[in-house]
Write a structure and sequence with these properties.
Peptidase_M28, 15-stranded mixed β-sheet, 9 helices, M28 family peptidase, alpha/beta, 466 residues
Length: 466
């Protein structure tokens, strides 16, 4: 599995890191980029125009019905039982796709204390500290020339024991949910979670750590009552996947994708992924057709933050494509690791840990490992698609069920669901190596047939992480 030597002389035609950063900054400057928002509609049109300028063929915007959530305000009021004159009010963020309310009242019960039926469930949430030794137990390979993994502990932006507890509260009969972000390393209520776009039948709100600790103190002093007020709309609207193609040296296909929406203006999630897909498109468009190992399809999906609506719609619209796919590559999140200093999220000079979900075909795993080493993409794990969950923890997760071979890159920096995901968090120095590494992997599929790298789909359940 080779093909890179003939292509290496063309790599200088790929965009520079400065060019890619200019794309990222331009996308971020449009504002909050949730599906259906003006900034994301702008990004769809802009990305399609970039595809055309690059020279892709059959550039199109493929429409899909997408659930759109637009929050306006959310507040939580608390008072000692029977003493509403001592009410204290906090502002927060409604949990995405939860039911708005003009005022849902009830007795407050900590989920950890037991029965929540008929009450407002209250829960403290924190981020998980993930030792890389735990990831190693699930990995099929790695590239760690610094030797940092044995001692490295990564902060991931979800509370692994409690990611589904809101749904448990609903199932147990709670009338509302209050999430206290007391375990986050900085002060925020802007936590965009969950993003599966599943409508929840009760209202919910995130409160910052400071406000959460105050609520905790009040509840510890005696029985409390509370009220949630939230204003939001949930509508179904048309958004678009952005698609373009290039002819190659075989009748088979390589798909390269990412998503164009994000929870906020979101530089890493996923303006950086847009830039990485555009970089692949520009590089391969500069290469003679006979040196492209297969036909190539580039797709930027809509609605990742709405239950991966775009990926699901693309798959449903193109069932005839997948028997001919040699590789599906998803590129998300060129991220810098960050520390929290005096309450501020400060990027370091190190990359965030990279997860490369890779089909467990030995030839493909070897190709990925060699490509990571060739471009010095340190702090990388090679993981099976089901290492953490029934499918990869990426926007491209549903491609797993088509049976096509996968290489899907994602990072999970702690700031990814927060407005603090700004351009300074993008790992600019990795943009070109990531572009070259991805191109090496694609080049290495030269001569492969659609079945060369396929393995049976594993359906066993694993722990949810995303």
């Amino acid at each position: 599995m080779s093909g890179w030597p003939a292509l290496e002389k063309y790599i200088d035609r790929a965009p520079t890191s400065k060019e890619m950063m200019s794309w990222i900054e331009l996308i971020v400057s449009q504002g909050i980029r949730r599906a259906g928002y003006p900034a994301d509609s702008w990004t769809e049109e802009w990305a399609a125009e970039q595809f055309r300028e690059i020279g892709l063929a059959d550039v199109r915007l493929e429409p899909l019905a997408t659930p759109i959530w637009r929050p306006r305000s959310a507040a939580f009021e608390i008072w000692p039982a029977g003493r509403a004159d001592e009410l204290i009010r906090f502002e927060g963020l409604a949990l995405p796709y939860t039911t708005p309310t003009e005022g849902t009242e009830g007795r407050l019960v900590r989920m950890a204390d037991g029965e929540v039926r008929g009450s407002i469930a209250v829960q403290e949430i924190g981020f998980t500290r993930l030792p890389q030794t735990e990831v190693q137990a699930r990995a099929t390979g790695s590239y760690d020339p610094e030797g940092v993994f044995p001692d490295l502990v990564q902060t991931v932006p979800f509370d692994l024991p409690h990611v589904l507890d809101f749904d448990i509260a609903i199932k147990d009969g709670a009338t509302a949910y209050v999430g206290l972000l007391t375990g986050l390393p900085w002060e925020t209520s802007d936590f965009y979670w969950p993003y599966d776009a599943e409508p929840r039948s009760v209202p919910g709100i995130w409160l910052s750590g400071k406000d959460g600790r105050r609520v905790r103190e009040l509840m510890a002093s005696g029985e409390c009552e509370g009220r949630i007020v939230s204003d939001a709309t949930i509508t179904e609207e048309t958004t678009h996947n952005v698609v373009g193609t290039l002819p190659g040296a075989s009748d088979h296909w390589v798909i390269v994708g990412s998503h164009h929406d994000g929870p906020w203006a979101s530089a890493v999630e996923d303006a950086s992924g847009v830039a990485l897909v555009l970089a692949q498109a520009r590089f391969w468009a500069s290469v003679p057709q006979e040196l492209r190992p297969h036909n190539m399809l580039f797709v930027l999906t809509s609605g990742h933050m709405a239950g991966a609506a775009g990926t699901q719609a693309f798959i449903a619209a193109h069932p005839e494509l997948f028997p001919q796919v040699v590789l599906e590559m998803h590129l998300e999140h060129a991220a810098r690791q960050a520390d929290v200093v005096d309450g501020e999220v400060v990027p370091t000079d190190d990359p965030e840990v990279r997860w490369w979900f890779t089909t467990e075909a030995p030839e493909l795993e070897r190709l990925v490992a060699e490509s990571l080493a060739a471009e010095d993409l340190r702090r990388s794990w090679i993981l099976s698609p089901t290492a953490f969950a029934p499918n990869p923890a990426t926007d491209g997760a549903y491609f797993y069920y088509t049976g096509v071979p996968l290489v899907q890159l994602i990072t999970t920096p702690m700031y990814i669901f927060d407005p603090r995901d700004t351009p300074d968090k993008v790992d600019e120095q990795s943009l070109v190596p990531l572009t070259k590494g991805a191109a090496r992997i694609i080049a290495g599929t030269a001569g492969c047939e659609p079945d060369t790298l396929r393995v049976p789909i594993q359906t066993a359940k694993a722990d949810e992480t995303r």
